[in-house]
């Protein structure tokens, strides 16, 4: 599944009177890893939510390969997200009582995918990510393994875009390195568009593009990636 290119223009969002995002222009190429960094409250998570269509901007365009998701009504944005995006969160958002395999397939199964091919794909992905998925309960896994279950879940619908919100913040350095390596591979080897919000210097170091935000404005955009 190739990644999708992103072109942002004139993106603005305010909560009350406070401007939270003010981003005049930005482009992200497919197959790259982009990191949003900046101090707490600078708007990293809010920008991720805008780019994934979870939030709608006050104005501006969020053009993913010709589809301006800012112009879509909520239902169409939800469908676009289901078809194109996978999410990884700091605290995994897994159901601890379920097995790793069931965590990976549950939401896709509820979305109407048929169970047998879904299970086969989930097992393969968990194997590739090195998760011991025969365990009956997810809470028997280490935190690093749990984050890899969450990555497998994010990938089950084969999304072009992966959004990660502080994906290493609750992991030790070694597990964090494993997760960073996976994100890097998802971009470089699988060609997906990967966008992560983080404070983690190890993740910043491996990014193609680093967007440093301050009060929702990009102070610098450092890019090793083609525009
Ligand atoms: N739903 C909301 N209503 C009002 N203000 C909000 C809302 N969501 C975020 N904010 C405010 O918007 C600003 C940016 O928040 P955001 O969570 O995007 O920052 P962040 O850079 O991700 O911070 P952190 O690193 O602490 O997670 C903050 O001032 C926050 O208080």
Automatic annotation (TrEMBL):
Q: Where is the ABC transporter domain?
A: 6-227
Q: Does the keyword Transferase apply?
A: no
Query: Where do transmembrane segments lie in this chain?
Result: none
What are the protein's UniProt keywords?
A: ATP-binding, Nucleotide-binding
What is one Pfam family matched by this protein?
A: ABC_tran
The name of this protein is ABC transporter
Family annotation (InterPro entries): AAA+_ATPase (IPR003593), ABC_transporter-like_ATP-bd (IPR003439), ABC_transpr_LolD-like (IPR015854), P-loop_NTPase (IPR027417)
């Amino acid at each position: 599944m190739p990644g999708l290119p992103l072109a942002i223009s004139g993106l603005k969002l305010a909560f009350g009177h406070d401007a939270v995002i003010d981003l005049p222009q930005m482009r992200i190429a497919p197959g790259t890893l982009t990191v949003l960094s900046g101090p707490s409250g600078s708007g990293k998570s809010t920008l991720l939510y805008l780019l994934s269509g979870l939030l709608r901007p006050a104005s501006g365009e969020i053009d993913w390969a010709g589809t301006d998701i800012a112009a879509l009504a909520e239902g169409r944005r939800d469908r676009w997200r289901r078809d194109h995006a996978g999410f990884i969160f700091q605290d995994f958002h897994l159901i601890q009582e379920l097995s790793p395999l069931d965590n990976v397939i549950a939401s896709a199964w509820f979305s109407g995918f048929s169970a047998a091919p879904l299970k086969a794909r989930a097992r393969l992905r968990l194997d590739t990510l090195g998760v011991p998925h025969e365990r009956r309960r997810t809470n028997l896994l280490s935190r690093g393994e749990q984050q890899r279950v969450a990555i497998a879940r994010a990938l089950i619908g084969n999304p072009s875009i992966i959004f990660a919100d502080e994906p290493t913040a609750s992991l030790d350095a070694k597990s964090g390195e494993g997760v960073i390596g996976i994100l890097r591979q998802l971009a470089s080897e699988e060609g997906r568009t990967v966008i992560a919000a983080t404070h983690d210097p190890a993740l910043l170091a491996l990014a193609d593009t680093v967007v440093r935000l301050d009060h929702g404005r990009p102070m610098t955009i450092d890019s090793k990636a083609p525009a």
